[in-house]
Amino acid sequence: MYLSTVGRVRHKEGKRPPLKAIGGTVVALGAVSLVTDISSEMVTAVLPVYLVLSLHLTPAAFGVVDGLYTGATALLRLVGGYIADRARGYKAVAGVGYGLSALTKLGLLLAGGSAPAIGAVITLDRAGKGLRTAPRDALITLTAPEEMLGRAFGVHRMMDSTGAFVGPLVALAVLAAVGSTSQAGFDAVFVTSFCFAVLGVLFLGLFVRDRRGHVPPVRLPAMSLLRDRRVRRLLFAAVVLGLATIGDGFVYLLLQRREDIAVGWFPLLAVGTNLAYLVLATPLGALADRIGRLPVVLGGYAALVVVYLMLFGPLAGAPLLVVTLVLYGAFYAATDGVLMALAGPILPESLRTTGIALVQTGQALAYFASSVLFGLAWQFWGPAAASRGAAVMVVLAILATAGLLMVKDKR
Question: Where is the Major facilitator superfamily (MFS) profile domain (predicted)?
Fold first, then answer.
């Protein structure tokens, strides 16, 4: 069997599986993610401009903060995943993560203009994300039929990206209502974000069903996962891809600087990306089920190469913004959920959450390293050279991933 064809499904001519077949739990988790992403993307949309333009952080310092936001607490994914598997309490562990992230929105108010305090709060917020992500994705893989995992993750990510699309618009509306991009305006964004985060926790408690009684108890040590060559190859590929991916904040800051976008309109860059993600997540998930998940993932990273090159390419103005943001959204739609759908069938049910957490941890740690290195490259070599270097790294990562995951499993 080839890893590149794991999860490939052929449906009968003219027939498509009904959406309800993916399960109510997937839709409920999508609703939780939708509301929670409104909260988190409100903060994400204003954070780069808040830190760099308001607090005057250097690109290297922003790289450290951005790395914290994407990967510094990655090891908690393993802790949360292992606890969820041992206790078979996926919903409870995810709930702790959602609750912790909600509280950090108030922490941003207390941090004020202190960059170290903001970094600490962001670390706690990402700790919450680290705890909740693997149990949530494991619930999806345990609920939806294996042959429909691409579609199930596509539907979930579509709902998730709906929240990501709405979040920056809400942040923009709040800033407009307050009439300020000063500390008072950002504080209003943080308070509103907290309210949405609490709503997400309530949705989880009321509408998501656990799978406690449907999964066999853990009888193998967690490290037994690494004895499987397929898991090792998948983990290494995830790390390589993570090392080649820079944070969203850098992409948006480079676009803002090149096109001289006003601070008040900065959140709209995330809106454009998330709109493309929203539109493409479900069809690309379904395509992955039909033709194979690996080709779709690699195609997404090919789109990312173009994004990095276009940051200092020939296009300018509206064409640059539209093409770049559409391709950036396509990258996320082709990789985020599809990679988890690729991983799901490889991992045993009893250690499914731990395995997903292992893959996500490797990628998150790689993101952290990538953000720090890109920030340093920007500061010392300039943004153009740093962006083109990132594009070269993605090309190398695509080749390495194809070589790793298209290897025939002789077991």
Answer: 25-411
